[in-house]
Write a structure and sequence with these properties.
The protein is an alpha/beta fold. The protein is 43% helix and 9% strand. Strand 4, helix 8 and strand 5 form a beta-alpha-beta unit. Helix 1 packs across helix 4, helix 3 packs across helix 4 and helix 4 packs parallel to helix 6. The longest helix is centred in the middle third of the chain and has 17 residues. The protein is globular and about 50 Å long. The termini are close together. GO terms for molecular function: hydrolase activity. It holds the Pfam family Hydrolase.
């Protein structure tokens, strides 16, 4: 088995609609008359970085907001939602993690979200523990955000794994670009709000079959 590099928390459990709800609640908390409906949010997810997305949206509307503060509120609300638990791992994810570990190969989470989001997500998913990951790369580890390849290069270097001996699983276009730029083969595993995005040459899967990791 190749090393398994899961590229975001929504490759583990589909949290995309929880994220959208948290953004909308954060906008209300900051007195903004914004509301991201699903179609608009899907389009916004073509770029990475929540705070950057808020700042860009404000610029497009000719408004000035404290994007970092809005995003911090969103993150707090999102973590509260994760903390309520009841999250289900996406199809095949737990099997893929187990198969990789049983083969003696590493499993990593390579994301640029906050460590708090990672902890809350894993705690909320039945059948998964932080100990299942040999490495977690988050925003406290690598400063550069995807689509920069830095998160994947850091993971490969830390794990001592060649790019040719790893496979990444990503749910968004920026993540696919990040893994590809690092020379890692990547499977696109879109979530509710990135389904239909253009993932280029990356194969798109709806179920994370361990056999597909070896293809």
């Amino acid at each position: 088995m190749p090393a398994l590099l899961l590229g975001s928390i929504s490759t583990i459990a589909d949290t995309s609609e929880l994220q959208r709800a948290a953004f909308n609640d954060a906008f209300a908390a900051h007195g903004l008359d914004w509301r991201w409906e699903q179609d608009e949010y899907r389009a916004l997810l073509a770029s990475n970085g929540g705070a950057d997305r808020v700042a860009s949206y404000a610029r497009d509307r000719g408004e000035t907001v404290d994007a970092a503060a809005v995003h911090a509120t969103k993150s707090e609300l999102f973590q509260q939602a994760l903390g309520r638990g009841g999250l289900t791992a996406r199809p095949g994810v737990l099997d893929a993690v187990r198969a990789t570990k049983e083969a003696g190969d590493p499993v990593a989470l390579v994301t640029t979200t906050s460590p708090e989001n990672v902890v809350a997500l894993v705690a909320g998913v039945d059948g998964l523990e932080l100990a299942d990951f040999d490495l977690v790369v988050d925003s406290s580890v690598v400063a550069e955000s995807k689509p920069d390849p830095a998160p994947y290069r850091h993971a490969l270097r830390t794990l001592g794994v060649d790019a040719a001996d790893a496979v990444a699983v990503e749910d968004n276009v920026g993540g696919v670009a990040s893994a590809t730029a690092a020379g890692v083969r990547v499977l696109a595993f879109p979530n509710t709000n990135t389904a239909g995005h253009d993932f280029g040459d990356a194969p798109v899967v709806e179920h994370l079959d361990p056999a597909a990791l070896q293809a």
